[in-house]
Structures are given as structure tokens and as C-alpha cells.
Task: structure prediction
Amino acid sequence: MKSPGAIERTLGWVDDRTGLVAVTEHAMFHKVPRSAKWWYVFGSATLMFFIVQLVTGVLLTTLFVPSAAEAYQSLVYIDEKIPMGWMLRALHGWSSNAMCIMMLIHMTQIFLHGTYKFPRELTWVAGVALCVTTLGLAFTGQIMRWDANAYWGLGIGAAIVDRVPFAGNWLRSVVLGGPDISGATLSRFFALHVFVLPGTAIGLIGLHLILVLKGGISEMPKVGQPIEPETYRKEYESRVKKTGVPFFPDAARRDMVFCGAALIGLIGLAAWYGPFGPGPVPNPTIIEVAPRPDGLFLWLFAVLALLPPYTETFLILVGPPVGIAFLAALPFISPRGERAPSRRPISVIILCIIVTALAVLTWLGETSPWSPVMKAWTSIPTPIEYVRDRSPLELQGAIQLQYAQCRNCHSIGGEGGKRGPALDDVATRLSWDQLVRQIQQGGGNMPAYGKSLSSAETEALAAFLSTLDGGHLPARIPGAMEHQPGRDQSPTADPRAEIDAETDANSDTVAAR
Amino acid sequence: MSERPNEDSTGTDPGSTLPSEAGGCEGCEPAKGGGRRGFLFAAGTTLLTVGGGLAAVPIVGVAIGPAEAGDPNRWISLGKATDFKVGQTVLVKFTNPWDSPTDGDSNLNVCYVRCLDHKKFQVFAITCAHLGCPVEWFAQSRLFMCPCHGGVYYEDGARASGPPPRGLYEYVWRIEDGSFEILGGRLAGLQEST
Result:
């Protein structure tokens, strides 16, 4: 028998002292089902992006100053002065998004294929804990970008914590590290983002991988091959023994190809689009900001806008824990039975509903039609065709429409806020009386203008609005289009039609307050 | 490794003190009864508990200290009461009454002061009562609007529309020797008294 070479001897010595060689060999060469193909690459890709996060994150901590007085300047310095610093930040930001996306795809696949069932229940539970940790990393990472969005994002977080019954105020002080957002807040979130959450994630990833090895990689689900806990282990082991392939290199090839391509894609995205922010400076006295969360949390932003107010506190506080608990409990609710999606229609329907809801809410969060366009009243002019051939009173009303910030919530000509209905054809929907009442008393999510507009201003505004018939559309309700009592409102029949509306609309005439 | 004989004061058969397959020894009950083993286990548990408790004092103290620091609110002067114009609502800057070297601009703050007459004011927090975004005052429509979820308030701070569960938060104010002061320092929130 040939005596072992130097490498074998060294490995033998290391294994004798640590046992690590045998463990590594088992991890690399354990047999996995032959059917584990392209569906199985997303977990590896999530891990790869996490490693990118660790490496870029460690380097960023050597450059970032976690002090509220200097954090913003240090980010600008990294972007502009440190060679390739911008690329480092870009990689960290894009890799964070990529990691979250891969993790969600991985979870979706596990759910769709029923892989969470016996004997892999705890692998799923560790995965759910990893998902929560990763989302925590994403949120705290947004705070590290110490700009106006980060500052007001913390304010939103504080307002949510504040809603906890009895202990809200106390908890908020603990989270913020003081009575208000300050340097201590950034320090606390820095500790979470850089030590606590990554440490937790590393521990959970270790546990997740140990459990994957213990339970074995699942096979692709097959119709008519349900999970029976009494016999599953024996059958799985015998099938894998018979037809399985070693993880490395057979199964790992696909992981390597996918991860390599994803890494190059990440570098491309980072190089092309650059780093995220920092946005406007985090100065609380600059209030002309419209805080928005990062893409991953836009659906939450939408939910918080759309929930009925009376359900909000309950759902904000109870919804996430219940949702997470339900996810974690899934394998215990359904530990056995068919894994094939075609035999689990309820699961498929639930998944479709969740994916559709998240996609629609994210889109709504992106467009945020409920948010007033705060500068619309000064930055978006009234279209010329809406003031052409109008009477002086109606033109006064057009000015009033801008001046009273109506455009912040209502669009005309497709521009303006989307919170209230577009006003292009408001005259076909509301009679004169209804227009006046709506302006003065509000209602239907519109504030009452009775105190802020004089009766003359209200009359002018109603007169202008009653000319907005959507291009001579017919009345949709009885009484609409009859307009102001005792007046002929037909623009074409009006002798004042000759007035140069454009000039008048741009005049400085503003109704006396 | 084998068990040392005679250490076990329970007087079990020496033959049964050989390591069992599970790694312990048959007949050994180290946590039970008196003797040196029982004493050491009890002493170890006690010392670790006491040590852990002592270590927890500064650890928990620093972690929850900010919530136990007492009332952070102080009287902050916003200028002379007569400097405010009657009938106007203005944005006023001030500095929070606490400070640390790392606060930077985050130590600054703003509020809206509404002057009804020079003896009657309303002072509103900048934060929307819905989820804390900064509201903006529009003098023309006499409304506060929130850019996040569209909360709107009237000039007296009352909720006008949108998701806020209540009106704007108000600061307590006073006039001291002609100086207009507010009681500020804590981020306004739902569980405040005002």
C-alpha cells in the first residue's frame, strides 16, 4: 500500500485534531437527488450575496463614520474621494436588493414544492428567522444612509413603535436611544446593522446549512409520492443512495453557473446605476421632503396609506407577528401529504394572492396616488384650453383652483395630485349646489374649505369648475351642467368668449381674501 | 477518561462508575443531594447567576437607560411673544434641550406657531399624527398637508381628512417675561398628553 503524501498527512492531522475535514467532505460530497436541478440554485445565490454583503460591509465600516454629525459627509466622501468607493457602496446596496430577491424566490420555491414538510420543518423555521433578520438588515441599512429619507424613516418607525399600548413611549425611547431622533439613534442602528443582525444571520445560516445536511436535499415533488413521516426517511435514503449524485461537483455545477452569472450581473448593475443615495441632507428643519422607503418596503408604505384608520394600529402591531408566526408554523400545520403543486391548489392560490398583492401594493407604493403633490399648485400651470373663452369670474376661479392648493390633490389635464378625483369632467358629475357644498363642507376625504375661502372665492371656484365638462360630455346626474342658477354658462354663447384667456390666466389678479 | 473513585459520596459501586455510552456514568446524579459534586454544582450555578446579574446591571442599564432618564422636556424660548404676527402660522426653528457631540443637525427641530393674539397661541409639532412625516403649512388654503399618506389638518390643528387618527400634536407653551416658550425635547407621539 502506498504511503500517504504530505497533503494527505496534513489533512489527516487536521482532521484528527478538529474533525473538520470529515465534516467538510460530508458537506461537499454527500449525495443529493438527481432531480435537484435549476430550481435549487436560489439558496446558494442568497448565500453568495450575503458573503458579498459581509465583505463590502466590513470595508464600508472602515470608511463610514457612524456619527449623526459626520455620517452624511463620510458617505459623500466615500462616493467622491475614495477610489472605487462609490462602487463599493453600489455593490453593497445592489447586493442587498439581490439578496432579498433571491431569498424571496428561494422561499417561494420551498413553499411551492412543499419542501417545508417532514423532516425539514426546522430548516424552514430557521429560514423564516433568516428572512426576518434579512429584512431587519435591509431596514437598518436604509438608516445607515443617514439622509432625509433615513431621518424621516426613523420617524415613521418611531411612530409605529409609539402605537404599542402602554409601553409605546418607553419602547420608543429605547429604540431611538433618547427622547428624539439623534446621534444616539444612528449609533443604535449602526450596532444593529453591523454587529447584532449580521451575527444573528451568520448563526442562523450555519444552523440552516446543518439542518439542510441533516435532512438531505429534497427531491423534486412528484405526484403520487406524498410525505409519510413513518416511511419517508427510509425511502428517501434508499432512493438517494441508488440514484443520487455527489453535491460537488455534480449538483454544485448549476449553483456555480447561476451564482457566477448573478455576481457578474450584480457588478454590472452596480457599475451602471451606481450607489443608492445619499439623498437630501438629514436636517430636520428642512421639511420640504417626501419620505419614501426603499423598494423592498414600498408595499408596506402602501398598506399604511390604504388601511382604514380604525384598523391601522391593530393591524400594524398584530399583523407582522401573526404573519411571521403563521409562516413559521406552516410545517406543523401541514407536515405530511402531497408536495406537488398540482395536488396543493389552496397553497398555490394563497401564493398567487400573496405575490399579486405584494406586486400591486409595491406598484401603488411607487406611484403613491394618495400622496398630495406638494408643489403642484405652484409648479403645474392650468392648461390653456381650460381657461380659453372663460368669463372673468371663471378665470378668477381658475386662479383660485391653483391658489387654494386644489391641484395638490386633484389633477386637471392629467397633471396634479391623484388623491382626489380628476376635475376635468367634474361639471358632469356634480350640480352647482353640490360643487359649492363640496368646496365648503368637504367630505369623502376632502377637507372643508368653508373657513379658508370667502363666499366670493367659493363662487368663483365653483363657476370655473362648472365649465369643466370633459369636452362637452353629457351630464351624468340630473342637475349637473345646469350650473350657477340664473346664469348662462355656455362658453360659446357667452359674449365674453373673446377675452384673451391666456393673458388673464397669467395675470396677477387674485381674489381678495 | 475514567471516573475518579471515591469522589462520589453517594457510595455507589465503583464498577458502575465507568463511563456509560451516553457519556455520563450510571448511578451518578451530580446535581442532586449533598457532597462535593452537589456543592460545586450549586456554587457554580449561584456564582454564575450572581455574576450574570451584576454584569446585566450596566448592560441593561445602558440599553434601556434612554427610557429611564426622566422627563427630557425643558422650556425652550422661541423669541418674543410680540414678534409673532397675529393671524399667522409660521415655522420656527429651535434646538433640542439635550445635546451630544455626535448629534449634528439632528439636534435641530422645528414647530409651527399659530398666533391668535399676543396672549393666545397654538404650537404644533411638525410630525403628522399618522406616522410622523413632516407636515407642510399652506397659508392660502389654511391647511397642513402631509406628503406621505395624505393626512390633512385645519389651521387649528384639527384633523381634516386622510389617515391620521387625531389632530396635530401640540406643545405646551407659556409667556415668561415677554419670552414665548414651549415645553419641548421629546419627539411628539400618540402617547403624549397633548
In short: Residues 35-64 of chain B form the longest helix (30 residues).
